[in-house]
Specification:
The protein is about 95% helix and about 0% strand. It is an all-alpha fold. It folds into two domains: about 180 residues, Orthogonal Bundle (Helix Hairpins); about 60 residues. The protein starts with a helix and ends with a helix.
Length: about 240
């Protein structure tokens, strides 16, 4: 009986357990739930054994009680029959035989009283056992419901953990994109191209300036040659004149 009460107490404790509070204190909620599932599964197995044993004992006690009541009723019928026979014999004047049947009636009544006492003394225990069985059954149902809650909680928790991990990966990708802003890289490359274009334009401008200077020198040389030619012609003509 002590063992059954111990199982009943453990069942009540587990059935009243605040799962959310336990998970809030757990470093690893998934492992915590797995351990709780194992604890509940083992406790349910113990509870089922306790319920089966208690019900078995109760049914035996009920059977014994019913047998005692049946025996008491049977001895009551025998006492009635013996008493009636004694009355018949006494009415017929057979006193000795009448007394013998009255004695048998007393024996039967004694047996009836004994069985009635047995049945009466067993009734409180049977009532108590019925109460224990009802509590065990109720606790068993509650624990099975709690076990399903635990399994559901675990599935939800795993799904939430996977979702959180996926969101973390997405946020990490977004952060890396923000750190390595492609528009910044493009702008930097564009600036480099512009600087190269400016350098080439500068070189072209320098080259163009040099070419203009050469043409200017050439034009200056041509004008000087023409002047020299005309001077030579003047001198030639003057000499002839």
């Amino acid at each position: 009986m002590v063992e059954k009460q111990t199982v009943l107490g453990r069942m009540a404790q587990l059935a009243k357990a605040n799962i959310n509070a336990l998970l809030d204190r757990a470093e690893d909620p998934a492992k915590m739930i797995d351990q709780l599932v194992r604890d509940y599964t083992n406790s349910i197995a113990d509870a089922e054994g306790a319920v089966a044993l208690t019900i078995g004992n109760l049914r035996m006690a009920e059977a014994d009680h019913a047998a005692d009541l049946a025996a008491a009723a049977d001895w009551g019928r025998k006492a009635l029959a013996a008493s009636a026979k004694a009355d018949q014999l006494r009415a017929a004047g057979t006193v000795v035989d009448a007394d013998r049947f009255d004695s048998l009636a007393k024996v039967a009544l004694s047996k009836q009283i004994s069985y009635e006492n047995e049945a009466r003394s067993a009734e409180p225990m049977i009532t108590s056992q019925n109460d224990v069985v009802d509590k065990l059954k109720t606790g068993l149902v509650q624990m099975r419901e709690k076990l399903e809650q635990l399994r559901s909680k675990r599935d939800q928790l795993v799904a939430r953990a996977k979702s959180a991990e996926a969101q973390s990966q997405v946020q990490g990708a977004i952060s890396s994109i923000n750190v390595l802003d492609p528009t910044t890289e493009v702008a930097r490359f564009e600036d480099k191209v512009r600087r190269e274009e400016a350098r080439v334009a500068g070189q072209a401008e320098i080259a163009a300036s040099s070419l203009d200077a050469q043409f200017e020198d050439l034009e200056t040389d041509a004008a000087s040659a023409e002047v020299d030619a005309r001077l030579a012609a003047l001198k030639s003509g003057g000499a002839t004149a």
